[in-house]
Design a protein that fits this description.
Layout (H helix, E strand, L loop, with lengths): L13 E4 H4 L17 H11 L3 E5 H4 L6 H18 L5 E3 L18 H20 L4 E5 L4 E2 L7 H22 L4 E5 L8 E2 L4 H7 L9 E3 L3 H6 L4 H10 L7 E2 L18 H13 L6 E3 L9 H27 L1 H11 L13 H9 L4 H5 L5 H12 L4
Parallel strand pairs: 1-2, 1-10, 2-3, 3-4, 4-6, 6-8, 9-10
Antiparallel strand pairs: 5-7
Helix pairs in contact: 2-4, 5-6, 9-10, 10-11
The structure holds D-gluconic acid and manganese (II) ion (2 copies).
């Protein structure tokens, strides 16, 4: 494979958040190690490295207390930088976690004034995103949780969240923005426990909304792995339900704090299954990298990090195509799901079919004779991943 095959192109839909390339390496124990990179510069770096899109929280671009005139100037300059860099804004979101006013939640806060402020801030962030052309609006409730359950009943929080999302959907309709909302789960951090802990929680919540068709999920690799889950399985369930509106790609070692590592850097095998899934089903949404460079890096290292995310995705995409085209793998796949003649049909219920099923005699010993060579299948996968096949 020549190197040029791994060049990112617009059709790959690779995007990065302003907050990811602009991450200054601050952590709970230490201060920033990199200078502040202005959003206009981030847009041009993204153009330079071949990305397609840039995403943002309201305050990544416009400071929280900017005057309307300042806001308009900043937006104008940013739009120009995006145009010059050939970069689009596919997704916008709102920061409901940084300002201390959200110390006890935003949409689920006990204080009705905080809930109203959170809603106002989100409406304005929707206005901003729409102005920049975003069609996806992510909601990550980082502060929607507790350290102690003494402060509110958890079902009350769910009701408040529903009320807020319903309100946002109505505003979306009233303004004609045509956003699709993508809800992002996380089990903890910054709160001790966040209410909507996993993508599965959100998939259960969405059908209870007034406009469920407008709302999907934004699963993040690190977040599901923090919960000890198989990320690809959650993504597959969201996809199958028609709810995979966006995706946050990064990596994470099990049992750690939210590391936001370069995509595929910690567990390339699970990244492979994920990429294979997204490519097999022809997911055509953005591939958003919600990760950041090691704290050791300068801004050249940040470019290495961002290029690495895209390169690893494209390498794994090529490996997935190789896996699908592999004759030995395909033979095993056929063998393990082949039906024995006479097996009762079970696709859907009918009275006749169920009578046939009930009267059928299963030869369990014969069934047990069938080979399930998953060791071989997995080793073929490893051979492909390690580049010897
Ligand atoms: C995190 C989250 C965020 C969100 C972002 C979009 O753990 O910090 O992943 O990066 O994705 O705030 O709402
Ligand atoms: Mn995220
Ligand atoms: Mn995260």
């Amino acid at each position: 494979m020549s190197k040029t095959n791994y060049q990112p192109k617009p059709e790959h839909k690779f995007s990065f958040g302003l907050w990811t390339l602009g991450n200054r390496g601050r952590d709970p124990f230490g201060d920033a190690v990199r200078r502040t990179m202005p959003p206009t510069e981030i847009a041009s770096v993204l153009g330079e490295i071949g990305a397609w899109g840039v995403n943002l929280h309201d305050n990544d671009l416009v400071p929280i207390d900017a005057t309307p005139a300042e806001r308009d100037r900043i937006v104008r300059e940013f739009k120009k930088a995006c145009q010059q860099g050939g970069i689009v804004v596919p997704m916008a979101t709102v920061n409901l976690f940084f300002h201390p006013v959200f110390r006890d939640c935003a949409f689920t806060a006990n204080d009705p004034e905080v809930r109203a402020y959170a809603l106002q801030k989100t409406l304005r962030a929707m206005d901003l995103g729409a102005e920049l052309g975003a069609k996806i609006f992510v909601l990550w409730g980082g502060r929607e949780g507790v350290e102690t359950d003494a402060c509110r009943r958890a079902d009350e929080a769910v009701k408040r969240l529903r009320e807020a999302v319903n309100y946002l959907c109505e505003y979306n309709i009233a303004q004609g923005y045509k956003y699709r909302f993508a809800l992002e789960a996380k089990p903890n951090e910054p709160r001790g426990d966040i209410y909507m802990a996993t993508t599965g929680h959100y998939l259960g919540f969405i059908p209870t909304l007034d406009h469920p068709e407008m709302v999907g999920v934004n699963p993040e690799v690190a977040h599901e792995q923090m919960a000890g889950l198989n990320f690809m399985h959650g993504v597959a369930q969201a996809w199958e339900a028609g709810k995979l509106f966006h995706i946050d790609l990064n990596d994470q070692a099990p049992g750690r704090y939210d590391q936001d590592l370069r995509f595929g850097s910690n567990n390339p095998k699970s990244a492979f299954w994920l990429v294979k899934f997204l490519e097999d089903v022809a997911y055509d949404g953005p591939r958003h990298f919600d990760a950041h460079a090691y704290r050791t890096e300068d801004y050249d290292g940040v470019k290495d990090f961002a290029r690495g995310c895209m390169r690893t995705y494209l390498i794994l995409k090529e490996k997935a195509a190789r896996w699908n085209a592999d004759g030995d793998i395909q033979t095993i796949l056929k063998e393990i799901s082949a039906a024995v003649p006479g097996t009762p049909k079970t696709g859907s219920y009918s009275a006749k079919g169920s009578a046939a099923l009930l009267s059928h005699v299963f030869d369990k010993d014969a069934i047990m004779q069938k080979r399930l060579p998953y060791e071989k299948l997995d080793q073929l996968t490893i051979d492909i991943l390690l580049g010897v096949r």
